[in-house]
């Protein structure tokens, strides 16, 4: 199934490029060579070694008449020493965007179909080795194929305000492992989202996205507060997610985005899977001139996982899963050659992440750097 799906993505990508090579189309190819101090996000006790890697990616973003859109993204990373860190990710989306009016009211709608495939080896944070269950490897347990269907209705009550309602259905299929006692992670997920965007000026806009998501696992069971599976009670997770932010474009080539996120997840049984996550992030793009561009991301993240039971006076102590930390990344692009609507650029990036947890097993730091070439066209 995965091979067929990827072949479809490739064929549609080629047809999209051939059909209309204009300013509405874009293709980016990037190749990077670099070093990563901790690709598995393991604690210092695991004696991490610096890993050399090669990464390649392809992005295609095309549309016809601003109504029919196609996006495809393929990423491949390969590490020189530790092949467990190799990853492959491919995704594609086809979207139809149109609008209509009713008296003096403007509406718009979008219909989309998407697909994603991920291949990434699971490495245990406790041991630093490939995870096992009942003595057998579960290295590929988290590989999956996912399809999604989306419908969106947009409404503009004023010129400066857009309101959007979105419904998305996901179906994720994980690689099946024939191991006794190990259930699969296949699940259905539905997401309902309310989005608001307010144009405060011709240079900036505020946005708000609130969503409710429900995930139902096909085989995975809920647990009680003692971590024991609850018979005949499938795991159902409910999540509330809020994003609030501001986008600022003071002039051509300069872009800033500030965002705050809050996420609350609960299960429908004992509360064993309850969790809260939040982060503040800032991303930016600054064009020094037509040939030199700088990109950056800075974020602070916090996650807590709580076991709780309101039926007793002394609730169970938290499982020491709270983790907080920061990520920072800087990238530089130098366009060294142009020909008609194509660009060839040298690319470099550096990044650092550090996370702290009450349990040292979940604490880690990571540094990475890479240089490469990026080609873009149309």
The rounded distance between the terminal residues' Cα atoms is: 32 Å
Which percent range fits the helix content?
Answer: under 10%
- The pLDDT mean sits at 86
The dominant shape is: globular
Helix segment count? Answer: 1
User: How many strands in all?
Assistant: 18
Strand order of the largest sheet: 1-2-3-4-5-8-9-10-11-12-13-14-15-16-17-18
Main structural class: mainly beta
Radius of gyration: 23 Å
Order of helices and strands: HEEEEEEEEEEEEEEEEEE
* Largest pleated sheet: 16 strands, antiparallel, barrel
Strand content: over 45%
Q: Would you identify the regions where 5 or more consecutive residues have pLDDT less than 50?
A: 7-23, 309-320
Could you explain the architecture of this structure?
With about 375 residues, the protein is mainly beta. The strands form 2 sheets. A 16-stranded antiparallel barrel has the order 1-2-3-4-5-8-9-10-11-12-13-14-15-16-17-18. Strands 6-7 form a two-stranded antiparallel ribbon. It is built from 1 helix and 18 strands. The protein is globular.
Describe the SSE topology.
Elements: H1 2-19, E1 25-36, E2 51-64, E3 68-79, E4 87-102, E5 105-120, E6 132-133, E7 136-137, E8 144-158, E9 161-174, E10 187-199, E11 204-223, E12 229-248, E13 254-267, E14 275-287, E15 292-305, E16 323-339, E17 342-357, E18 364-377
Antiparallel strand pairs: 1-2, 1-18, 2-3, 3-4, 4-5, 5-8, 6-7, 8-9, 9-10, 10-11, 11-12, 12-13, 13-14, 14-15, 15-16, 16-17, 17-18
């Amino acid at each position: 199934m995965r091979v067929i799906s990827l072949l479809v993505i490739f064929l549609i990508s080629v047809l999209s490029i051939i059909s209309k090579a204009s300013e509405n189309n874009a293709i980016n190819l990037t190749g990077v060579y670099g070093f990563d101090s901790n690709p598995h996000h393991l604690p210092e006790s695991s004696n991490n070694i610096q890993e050399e890697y090669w990464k390649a990616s392809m992005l295609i973003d095309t549309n016809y008449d601003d109504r029919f859109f196609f996006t495809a993204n393929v990423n491949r990373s390969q590490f020189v020493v530790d092949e467990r860190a190799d990853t492959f990710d491919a995704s594609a989306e086809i979207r139809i965007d149109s609008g209509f009016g009713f008296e003096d009211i403007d509406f718009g709608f979008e219909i989309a179909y998407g697909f994603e495939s991920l291949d990434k080896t699971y490495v245990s944070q406790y041991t630093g080795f490939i995870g096992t269950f009942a003595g057998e490897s579960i290295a590929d347990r988290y590989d999956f194929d996912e399809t999604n269907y989306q419908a969106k209705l947009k409404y503009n009550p004023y010129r400066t305000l857009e309101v959007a309602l979105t419904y998305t259905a996901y179906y994720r299929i994980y690689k099946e492992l024939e191991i006794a006692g190990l259930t699969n992670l296949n699940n259905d997920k539905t997401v309902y989202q309310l989005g608001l965007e307010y144009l405060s000026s011709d240079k900036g806009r505020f946005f708000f996205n609130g969503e409710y998501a429900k995930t139902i696992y096909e085989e995975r069971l809920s647990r009680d507060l003692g971590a024991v599976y609850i018979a005949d009670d499938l795991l159902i997770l409910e999540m509330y997610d809020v994003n609030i932010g501001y986008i600022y474009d003071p002039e051509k080539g300069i872009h800033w985005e500030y965002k705050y996120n809050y996420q609350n997840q609960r299960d429908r049984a004992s509360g064993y899977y309850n969790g809260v996550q939040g982060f503040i992030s800032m991303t930016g793009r600054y064009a020094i001139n037509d040939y030199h561009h700088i990109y950056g991301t800075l974020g602070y993240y916090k996650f807590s996982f709580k076991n709780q039971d309101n039926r007793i006076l002394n609730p169970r102590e938290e499982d020491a899963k709270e983790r907080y930390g920061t990520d920072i990344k800087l990238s530089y692009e130098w366009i060294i050659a142009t020909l008609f609507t194509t660009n060839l650029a040298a690319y470099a990036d550096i990044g650092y992440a550090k996370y702290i947890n009450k349990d040292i097993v979940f604490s880690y730091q990571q540094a990475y750097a890479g240089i490469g070439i990026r080609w873009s066209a149309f």
